[in-house]
Amino acid sequence: MDSRLELLFKHTVVDARHQDHRRGKYTTLPAGCGFGGGRILPGNYANTAHNEPLVDAVLSDLAVQRVARYIDSELFPSCSWLLLTSHPITGLQTYWPKLHQFLSNLLEHILMDCLDIQRLFAGCCYGACHFNLHNATTLDHEDYYNILFALCAVYASGRYDHTRSGHLIAWSLRIVAQFPAGSAAFLPSACVTHANTPIDSKSGEHRSSIAFFTLAGLARWYHNGYMSDKEFMERVSPRQLSAWKDCRSRLWEAGLELLQYD
């Protein structure tokens, strides 16, 4: 896995905004599908003509596909906002089955409605991911474009001393956890400020990660009857608008229900 991500870093060509951004100073490349940012319809993330075949090669790599399946239903070893362990455990489907079903159903409906969208990974409920390469330690941030109550998943890779660097910090949860290469973490990245401690790149350390997520824009598109908020507001009746606003005001309750295990 590490060699595959390092190869992607070595051969990719990116502009400044993909190297120095609000999450940190490292190269990041998107894959998968989303909606928002001026899009008219949901669609796949676009990479440059040079980078697209490089990203596709990573997506088709069996080791990367295996990580995506472990994130979905058989994750080990792991740390999360509820669980810190070094023992083999299972993934999102086991600990948050209702959230897993919600994300899986949402993705299936988006794929059926938008036939041009390519599925990111077979057997994975997340719609998109970022490949964060070589020096991937993040600044304090929230991923506010993601579904607020959903748990994103981050897989760490590289060569670094996880006892001294690369720690995962979830500030509002008051968690600082060692985050060794080959492990993964779940966290509500849209509402919890999080970051990593720096690695020692001067001594030859490097760290990459794959961040799995689903954008809130896709959920809004589906909830609106396969249209944007703007189009929905232009077409909606007063009664529908009242019900829509009431549903939006209670999203936090729906999110808490999806995070419960019963």
Question: What does this molecule look like?
Answer:
The chain is an alpha+beta fold and 262 residues long. It contains 9 helices and 11 strands. The protein has helices spanning 2-11, 52-59, 62-73, 92-95, 97-113, 216-223, 229-235, 238-249, 251-259, and strands at 27-34, 43-44, 78-80, 84-85, 128-133, 152-159, 168-170, 175-177, 184-187, 194-196, 206-213. The strands form 2 sheets. It has an 8-stranded mixed β-sheet. Helix 5 (97-113) packs across helix 9. The protein is globular. It starts with a helix and ends with a helix. The relative contact order is 0.18.
Write the layout of secondary structure elements.
Elements: H1 2-11, E1 27-34, E2 43-44, H2 52-59, H3 62-73, E3 78-80, E4 84-85, H4 92-95, H5 97-113, E5 128-133, E6 152-159, E7 168-170, E8 175-177, E9 184-187, E10 194-196, E11 206-213, H6 216-223, H7 229-235, H8 238-249, H9 251-259
Parallel strand pairs: 3-9
Antiparallel strand pairs: 1-2, 1-5, 3-4, 5-11, 6-9, 6-11, 7-8, 7-10
